[in-house]
Write a structure and sequence with these properties.
Layout (H helix, E strand, L loop, with lengths): L10 H4 L1 H10 L12 H9 L1 E2 L5 E2 L7 H12 L3 E5 L6 H13 L5 E3 L6 H4 L1 E3 L1 H7 L6 E3 L1 H8 L2 E5 L6 H4 L2 H7 L1 E4 L4 E4 L5 E6 L11 H4 L2 E5 L6 H18 L9 H16 L18 H18 L6 H12 L5 H14 L6 H11 L1
Parallel strand pairs: 3-10, 3-11, 4-7, 7-10
Antiparallel strand pairs: 1-2, 5-6, 8-9
Helix pairs in contact: 3-4, 3-5, 12-13, 12-14, 13-14, 14-15, 15-17, 16-17
Length: about 350
């Protein structure tokens, strides 16, 4: 039987060799049921070179202390909440930490307006429930219940998108480390190693505020956008090249100068001023996150590979930039047109991008 490659392998699958090498070389104390020590988890996330020469690739570019605080939280009895504007790699970081700690990053509860308590606590196999009545065999375990039984990390994505009453289902789980099943008169008790990593942002619409009682159960770590342009260029270049390989795009990895153009445009529009501070700009309504910059570059690779020369040019970037910037047809179009005329047109090395963008706007 052949195994088909998957479109997006989990972190523990994609980086299995690195995780194995780290675990084998790790001689520091490990918390109960952890696959490696907290120090090794940080090395896996931020990258490094082992004593045998094995290179661990960076998964996250950012402040080392933030990652140490995040990993250190999981050793305690408190859950971890990663907060930041969209595109600051909250989900990416939570996935890789879970993979390194538990060897399983797929115990996930995805927060949406439609997430119900059964997805946090447990559900029922209704065929067995009707045939046999309430029993442990009829219980359908949620990822949280599975994590409690196995002593593993559970990821909760977009916690504040869940309705408030569903969010509060976590209070007993996080404070008492138990999950009651009143219908059976029993409760599932968490074994050592169980913890929760949640992500949240307060930028988008549809966010439900967390109760104070729930917020107290988390140690909050705020993930900022990349500090410098060079950091953001590094992130976008690496992720776009990685996605290009995964999607088997017939295009060359993006040139750094093209990535830098996208990143600079995003940073200037996010900040409301040019990099030299001389020109003030209207801010578009979108977040213009690093994740969106990656999407713009990846889309450009797809266009260049299938409909162009195989090398990204201004023509391939223009459509992606327009789609990323213009979310509101009226206000964002005005902001984008102003930026094209006041900034892009005045940079001699960007004239090709100006023409390509104007062709689309016109």
């Amino acid at each position: 039987m052949t195994t088909e490659p998957v479109l997006r392998p989990a972190a523990e699958q994609q980086y299995a060799a690195e995780l194995a090498a780290l675990a084998a070389a790790d001689d520091r104390p490990r918390p109960p049921r952890w696959r490696m020590s907290p120090q090794a988890v940080v090395t896996y996330v931020l990258g490094g070179t082992l004593a045998d020469g094995t290179v661990i690739t960076p998964k996250y570019v950012g402040d080392r202390r933030l990652v140490e605080v995040a990993v250190g939280t999981l050793v305690t009895d408190r859950a971890l909440l990663l907060v930041g504007v969209p595109g600051t790699a909250k989900s990416w970081l939570s996935e890789h930490i879970a993979a390194a700690v538990s060897g399983n990053s797929m115990l996930v509860v995805q927060g949406t307006a439609g997430t119900g308590e059964d997805q946090v606590r447990y559900g029922w196999n209704y065929a067995r429930l009707i045939a046999e009545g309430p029993s442990e065999a009829a219980v359908v375990a949620s990822p949280v219940m599975t994590g409690m039984r196995e002593g593993a990390v559970v990821r909760v994505e977009e916690l504040t998108r869940m309705p408030a009453e569903v969010q509060d289902s976590f209070i007993t789980i996080l404070s008492e480390k138990t999950l009651p099943i009143p219908e059976l008169g029993i409760q599932v008790q968490a074994v050592p190693g169980f913890t929760v990593i949640a992500t949240a942002n307060d930028r988008d619409r549809g966010v439900n505020q967390m109760s104070s009682a729930l917020a107290r159960r988390f140690n909050t770590v705020v993930l900022p956008p990349p500090a410098t342009e060079d950091d953001e260029v590094e992130i976008v270049s690496a992720r776009a090249a990685q996605l290009g390989r995964a999607l088997q795009l017939p295009a060359e990895p993006p040139a750094l100068e093209e990535v830098r153009r996208v990143v600079r445009i995003f940073r200037e529009l996010r900040n409301g001023s040019t990099v030299d501070g001389r020109t003030q700009l209207k801010k578009p309504s979108g977040s213009l996150s690093t994740a969106e910059a990656i999407s713009v570059v990846t889309s450009g690779m797809a266009l260049a590979g299938h409909f162009g020369s195989g090398t990204i040019t201004a023509d391939e970037l223009a459509s992606g930039l327009l789609g990323a910037v213009v979310k509101d047809r009226v206000s964002d179009t005005a902001a984008w047109q102003e930026y094209l005329e006041a900034v892009v047109k005045e940079r001699a090395e960007w004239r090709d991008l100006y023409r390509a963008c104007q062709d689309l706007v016109g």
